[in-house]
Write the structure tokens for this entry.
Amino acid sequence: MRIIIAPDSFKGSLSAVEAASSIDRGIKKVFSDAETILLPVGDGGEGTMETLVAATGGEIRKVLVIGPLGNQIEAAYGVLGDGETCVIEMASASGLQLVPEGELCPLEATTYGTGELILQALNDGFTTFIIGLGGSATNDGGSGMLQALGMHLLDEQGNEISWGGGELSKVNRIDINSFDKRISKSRFIIASDVQNPLVGLQGASHVFGPQKGASVEEVNFLDSNMLVWADEIAKTTGIELHNQPGAGAAGGIGGAFQAFFPIEMKRGVDVVLEYTKLEDELENADLVITGEGKVDSQTIFGKTALGVAQLAKSNNVPTIIIAGSIGEDIEALYDHGVVSINSIINRPMTLKEAVDNAEGLLTSCAEQVVRSYFYKSVNEKGRLLI
């Protein structure tokens, strides 16, 4: 019996690595001799770096950078097992989790630290990058990142603008002469599922600004500033990001990558699945178990569980999903190789109880899932029939 375990993180409770281990323990309670392949995955957001480093036998390097609120913090980037590929999660340097409760400030939050991570990796000799977008506390259009990498964003008086989306309306000239020349000679794979444009009602500010603490008035202000930013980028590069899909990712940093970096934009889960080599492990597999904190109508739009199931289906392997919670409109997943969707919640409980006990609940659910799926192989004592 060969089972592939490929979950995403259960946000707020378990990392993808911890989730995979919990599922494995549940399986081994029933089939102690089962061959289990643990391949924790993700969709390009938080946890992607840890997942890829663990899957490839790489390492994590700590770096002191400027956090989203301008204070110095410890962030990190990953090096894959090939020793040549650098993985950066912008959330590590510019993420929501770095901002204390009640202190969200998208007008001032900066991506400068993300630029510092890239700069350090360039200084360390890397030329191939995977950049995971997601979980950002910022709405600065990637301006801080660009400044950290040598670009000058100047106002009418020729002075450098300060950090944050609240400053973008002051940009009068973009000076790219000092922008790090090594960037044009490097390769950047941008892992993101967001297809929102840079400006407008579907843009970065209107769609994601409220999640980062922006009021209605601030959302409108940020969007008008982002329009100025998009106009200046078009004037400088000839690239119009206003309605460009993906430009609005992570507070507009997606647009900065599109305009000033040599990039490939890919669905986050596809990047992770490629580097974890899940497809190579699917040969002769009997089942794939994946999972994440919540499965709902959004899962069909490129979340981890869908990507895993699609790849498994293409190799004629069924997939079972285990989730912290299950929302509405999940039926479409059954068209992509998913045979069942299961919640770890096994009795009435509060969200805090579920989060605090996620490890045990996930193990128990995995045990019940494999008992049900392989019921013909289990005797009355729960043992594998010989």
About this structure: The radius of gyration is 22 Å. The longest helix spans residues 216-237.
